[in-house]
Amino acid sequence: MKNLGTIFAVILLGSMSSAGAMTATEAAKIFSQFEELKPPFDAASARRVFGDAKWIDSVEVRHVTIIAGSMLISMDRGGEIFVINLVRGSSMKDCWWVEVRTTNAIRSEATLRDFLRGKAPPDARIVEYVCVTYGILKRVGEENRVPE
After folding, report:
1. What are the CB-based long-range contacts (under 8 Å, 24+) for 49-56?
2. Is 101 within 8 Å of 128 (Cβ atoms)?
3. Contacts of residue 32, Cβ cutoff 8 Å, sequence gap at least 6
């Protein structure tokens, strides 16, 4: 698996709040739902796949503005970057998370949460996402393919 960089040690293991209290089975379901969505997708598409997205209230969402290390998501294509921590573990191999790159219409954690529930500005889109856990890496970009 690729080097996940310093940022994940800080984001995924740094603050053990109640967020990220989902089980691995529940996280796998979220991964499957993400796979139904082909970027760029809008809030209506997210609502169709995620329904009311109640799960988003039980997980941590972080807007990434400063990076010390590397991320798997494309950092050179503009937009906003977020990390959704689904499962937090005592080590990296126990964590499940989704990195998303959005259009500039999504500028906060609250707006991303609303987007996944189907409520967002008309120009809001997720243009790329990466679903990651130990041994699994699914990256989907705006070209509607898994980038090399």
Report:
1. 50/116, 50/117, 50/118, 52/117, 53/113, 53/116, 53/117, 53/118, 55/22, 55/26, 55/30, 56/84, 56/113, 56/116, 56/117
2. yes
3. none
Residues near 114 by Cβ (< 8 Å), separated by ≥ 6? 43, 120
First to last CA, the chain: 14
Residue 76, CB-side half-sphere exposure with 13 Å CA sphere: 1
Listed by start position, the domains of the chain span: 6-136
Comparing CA positions, the residue from 6, 3, 7, 23 lying closest to residue 82 is 7
122 upstream amide cis, omega within 30 of 0: no
Based on C-alpha coordinates, what's the Rg of the chain?
14
Instruction: Tell me the pLDDT tens digit for each residue of 15-74.
Output: 444 455 688 899 999 999 999 999 999 999 999 999 988 999 989 999 988 766 667 676
